[in-house]
Task: structure prediction
Amino acid sequence: MNPDLQATDPAIADLVAAEERRQAETVKLIPSENYVSPAVLAATGTVLTNKYSEGYPGRRYYEGQQVIDPLEELASRRARELFGADHANVQPYSGSPANLAAYMALAEPGDTIMGMALPMGGHLTHGWSVSATGKWFNPVRYGVRRDTGRIDMDEVRELALAERPKLIFCGGTAIPRTIDFPAFAEIAREAGSVLVADIAHIAGLIAGGAHPSPVGHAEVITTTTHKTLRGPRGAMILSDEAHAKAVDKAVFPGLQGGPHNHTTAAIAVALHEAAQPSFADYAAQVVRNAVVLAEALAERGFDLVSGGTDNHLILIDLTPKGVAGKPAAKALDRAGLETNYNTVPYDPRKPFDPSGLRIGTPAITTRGMGEAEMRQIAAWMDEVVTALAGSDEDAAEKVIDRVHHEVRELTTRFPVPA
Ligand SMILES: *Cc1c(COP(=O)(O)O)cnc(C)c1O
Result:
């Protein structure tokens, strides 16, 4: 624990310590989360937070950029090299602002834009109605096929050719299958649209060679840095040369003020880590673990959207288990298994009380868990969900307590990076 924080503000220091303990003792199955390395964490807690640097390297609105300019250039170069992109903007505050910048760079308010519907696996910022992107633009949305649970590329083509959107978003938050970037690119070309690939969830898999890259297919690529990429909370926009200027102008001065330089430093560290051969091993193991976990769940009667997974993420329709997503997620959390409830495609239930559960393997793989642990986790999930579906509440609580005990024991063998 940090002694300065403890001395100045024990209330916050205690909360941080409690969260550290909670993270150590739980099995984190939320697919958008991870654990950063001590080096990434250290970079976020530096004096770089004290500096304003509106603008870009060599073109700033504040003096004193002797250190920040090379820092941002290094982060940007590492991003370009890791992903093979022409251009990288490392300033977006997070994934949602990065997506807003893509709109600002490529469209005018009121223009037609296209993305995957939120309940089908898209993100709020891909034009969902409650989001600014759904209010300020004219969104059209595609989904997945009812029979396969996979993106309906015929629907994407028909919709794109009928609506001619300014931009088409591909990527999402609950897509368990490989995204076909070349197919999206061909449709975008036919429709005269710019293809934006939002790789927030899978950036680390792409960097590690465990998912095909959108570079060369999507003109603009947005991503968070804190999911599979295992960096600090932040975002980047990669683009081809033709869109570089528009992207930069959209981020600053279009949407943001000063970049968060301590975050830029931590992004640079994460990119350096992701360029090491060991990160490719990590990315491959994330996928291997997800496949094993999916198979073990399917063997226990769990209904997986699309039948399984190609990446880090598994979407479970709990309907056949006789339990809804929210009570299941809450019971699992009490057992030390952290998940999130989620809509499944064509969900008959409400978004705040949906049928599904979304899980993934990026965080547990970072802790070094492997295939044996995946089978154990599937068994625990089955025990908790089956107990919850039964009518005996006391018996269910006993199961949850016992699993919690066993989960705690497992987590002591796989420490969080520190
Ligand atoms: C997480 C995510 C975002 C948003 O990122 P925030 O940092 O939470 O704003 C955008 N798009 C996709 C596909 C995501 O998974």
